[in-house]
Structures are given as structure tokens and as C-alpha cells.
């Protein structure tokens, strides 16, 4: 079972532009960004290699997405839930994730 | 700034790199560093996830429309018949099946029955034939409401049926995966399989739309949705 | 060897939520008709614990419900239905009281 306290490192990824607003079903229809497809592959790999089963992950996405991360857009649920789960499971620490994100951000901005 | 015209910069959907993208990259790289999966694993699944769209499903439907024997086979054994269009449900990526589906069934729409699919428990979806599921399909909004108020929900997509047509909701809660075979619309006599496949869009195979002769997956509709005949 | 045949009226047991079950809450206690057989596979309750090799397999059935039976305030039409798959252990023959 997942902890019910949101991690700051995750909460800090939400910006006013990306905050979820209630839209009708057809409005949610959009082409996925490349990172979404990449995330899809990541969760499949996690399930396939035994780290986190797909079904558990989907339930967690719902649970967290409707509660502690309810302001996040639906399309970010996979990445948010996975980050939360990996920290809960002790696979990575919040500091480690923070540091890695800094490194990635710097690398992307260099390009 | 330096590198602002770097030819090797990745193509971005928007100008700025989003925080979600940074988070996604960080999670992926940390997972790989911790040995949860390999770069090669991820590359193979990426390729598959990006390459699979609804074209497999469209092909199946178009073929069934023109070939009655194929249609019979497809309705009798969806899993096996998919192989005839190059889709193997047990081995979609060439590296084993990552998800827990096993059986594929095609649901035929008739003048008396309109089918629509949902997974209330976890948004399972027939990805090998339809690609990635739309955002809305995965929301509790759709999943909770479609089973309770199916006609209201499909009306939001512009689809209505009279009281003598049965709206049949299929909740894929177990190992089966479903796809709707819509009815062939009038005005398509003599069309090739390719032409027919072009009007069989993703939404018509979920069941929130019906094919129209002037509406393909790549051209916007000329009016607001459609009404079943 | 299947307990139920196509056309049989069956009621979904109203058992309390078992861990990792895939039987939706909204069909429990309700009566429908068996419309198809499915191949046997390991029940979700065992599969969730990784017991794919030695988990209990049993027949599965497609059960069709009338929407007006499932939802007290159904706003569609009488003719509408909902189908879902149930493992044998979750089904019992419909009683005489159900019409």
C-alpha cells in the first residue's frame, strides 16, 4: 500500500500551466507528447522485469491521482505514481531523485 | 545563447522542456541505474508503443467487411485471426507479452445492437490492434460513467441511438480484450480495403463513434459527430 | 466440466471484497444470463499472488445483465445491457425469487 503523503519532489513539478482543469471527455483527446510514450515503455519494463506489476500500478495511479496528486493532469499519472512508488519502495530516495532531476535539467538546457 | 541553433537538439512539442519530461527522464535513468530494466528493454518497448496505432484494428474491420469468411473467422477466434494481419497477441513486441491479456474478441455491431467497451477496474485496452488508449478512456470519468449512463456518455461524443437499439456495454475486467466491429456505412460500395480502413477510426472501434464516409482518421469531421442509421 | 450452460440465469455472489478480486462491486448480488463460455484460466485471486503455474483454474463465463436491473435510476432504455466475465466461484444459480 502506498503512503498517503505526497513527495515534495513530485509536487514541485506541477506548474500553473500544467495544473489539471476539469474538461469534457472529448477535450481530453490529445496526441501524447514523446515523454508520455517513453513513460509508457518504462512502466511496461518495470512490470515485465518484475519491479512493479501493471495492475498494481494502474490501481495506484487511480488512487494517488484522485487524492494527493489530484491537481496533476491525467496524462502525468503514470510518471507521478511511478516516482511515488519507487520512493515508497525505497528503490530511490527523494534526494536522489532531486539530484538526478537537477542533472537532467542542466543537460537539457545545455542543448 | 550558445547552441540555440543546434542541429542535434531534440525536437520538442513545445519550446520549453517540461518538468514532467524531466521527471520522466530521471525516473527512467534511475531505474536503469538501479538495474530494474535495461536500456535495450526500454528501447524495444518504446519502439512498439510509438509504432502501434489503430491501423491493425482498421485492417481487421475492413477485411471483415469485404470477406465474409474472414469475418466468420475473426468473430469465432479473434486471437488467432489477428495473425492474418500480422498481429500476434501472445508476442506483440517480439520479446514476450508484458501485460496480462490473453484473449481477443471482436464485438459485431448490428442494426439492433451497438457495442461499447470499457475497463472499470483499470482501463485495459486492446493495444496490439488499437495502439495507446486515449486519455479520456483511462479517466474515472469515463470508466465510472459509461457503465451507469452509457447513452449520456456516447452522446457527449455525438452518438445517439433510438430506444429499439440495444446499447451493450462490455467491461473487460478479466483476461479478455475487446474491439468493436462497426457496421459498414452506406455509400461505400466498391471501395477498396484501404479506403474502407481509412474510415474505421479508433473511436469507432471503442464504440463512441460510427464510421462515416466523409471522415477518416486524418481529416477532421465535417459535422459534429454522427447519428447511427 | 462447466457448471453453467448458455442461457442459465445466474446470480453474482454478494461476498465481501476479497483482496485482488476482479469482480466488480456493482454486479454483486445481481442476476444475469450466461451468454458465452470462456477458456479456463487461473483465477485472479491466485494470479495476484504470482501463482500462475499452480493457481486454481476454473471456467469463466460471460454474463449479461439488464441495465435496468443493475442501476435503480438507469436513464437509458429497457433494452440496454452490460456484459462482463465472471469466474465460476462467483456465480450461483438464480433463485426462484428473481424474475
From TrEMBL, chain B:
> Do the record's keywords include Iron?
yes
Name one molecular function that GO assigns to this entry.
thiocyanate hydrolase activity
Q: Which residues bind Fe(3+)?
A: 119, 122-124
The protein's matches in InterPro entries, at most eight in alphabetical order, are given as: CN_Hdrase_a/SCN_Hdrase_g_sf, CN_Hdrtase_a/SCN_Hdrlase_g, CN_Hdrtase_asu/SCN_Hdrlase_gsu, Thiocyan_Hydrolase_gsu
Q: Which UniProt keywords apply?
A: Hydrolase, Iron, Metal-binding
EC identifiers of the protein: 3.5.5.8
Taken from the record, one Pfam family name reads: NHase_alpha
**Residue ranges occupied by any Nitrile hydratase alpha/Thiocyanate hydrolase gamma domain in the UniProt entry:** 19-209
Tell me which family the UniProt entry assigns to this protein.
Answer: Belongs to the nitrile hydratase subunit alpha family.
- Specify the protein name: Thiocyanate hydrolase subunit gamma
Q: The organism's lineage?
A: Bacteria, Bacillati, Actinomycetota, Actinomycetes, Mycobacteriales
Automatic annotation (TrEMBL), chain C:
From what superkingdom does this record's organism come? Answer: Bacteria
UniProt cross-references to InterPro entries, sorted A to Z: CN_hydtase_beta_dom_C, Elect_transpt_acc-like_dom_sf
> Which enzyme class, named as a word?
lyase
Q: Where is the Nitrile hydratase beta subunit domain?
A: 3-93
Note the SUPFAM superfamilies from the entry: Electron transport accessory proteins (SSF50090)
Look up keyword Lyase and say if it applies: yes
The terms under GO molecular function for this entry are: nitrile hydratase activity
**Pfam families per the record?**
NHase_beta_C (PF02211)
Q: What is this protein called?
A: Nitrile hydratase subunit beta
**Keywords of the record:** Lyase
What's the source species for this entry? Answer: Rhodococcus jostii
Listed EC numbers: 4.2.1.84
